[in-house]
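step: validate -> pass
step: tokenize input -> pass
step: predict -> running
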Amino acid sequence: MKTIIVPTDFSPVATNALHYATEMAKKINASILLLHVYQVPVSFTDAPIVLVSIEDLRKAAEERIHKLKGELEHLVSGSVKIYAETRLGNVADELENVCNKINPFAVVMGTKGSTGMERVLFGSNTLTAIRHLTWPVICVPPGKRFGRGIHRIGFACDFKNVVESTPTKFILEFAKTFQAELHVLNVNNAYQILDEEKPEQSVLVQTMLEEIKPEYHFIQHHDIEDAINEFAETNELDLIISIPKKHKLMEILFQTSSSKQLVYQSRVPVMCIHE
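step: predict -> pass
step: emit ->
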């Protein structure tokens, strides 16, 4: 059975991502693993002082995660298997350890909330997960619901070194799992010098993905991320696939500039996959 890992710090943005993941789990007959990673708070004066005992932290973490697990089990009424786990340590490290153990279908996390504290705490953990995990990470914007499901997927592709950089197998399997349309998006800056290898790379992509017959869209725009977001909203995409090392999309999710929060504001989930 597929498993979706949902890290939580019990904040509204994390809870929203959990609801999204739960509806996804129902759709694909997957289980949910709730993961809460806690750390020992330390005060730094002349010497580090542990403010709370580890045993008290462990008990509090287990109480909260089991309460959340119970509430979720009540909501799903047995339609989804729910598991829960707490760990002491660094969020990114422990998340990677759990992923190594169970090989999840995906990790589902919130992007950032409306408050500065949510942006700093939960947002930084999500960005770290995107950068370091080799498993797919689905970033769910605040307020986003799974709703009708995933029927239209956008794949942002720059047509460079596509054989080495495109996670073809996963993209094909993911699209088939949801029986979704795939739209391959390539954005050209009008001021860029024409890449002579682009036609060849385009043909390679078409060959790699031909079994699901994607649609191809070549967009002229001065800003790649804005173009992807505008296309996503205009064409009602349910999800955008991005390769973090090749696109700045994830960095923009966590910037504070009002002109660079378009992906967050568009409420289109972004799935990051490393090549």
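step: describe -> Residues 3-140 form a domain with the Rossmann fold fold (CATH 3.40.50.620).
step: cleanup -> pass
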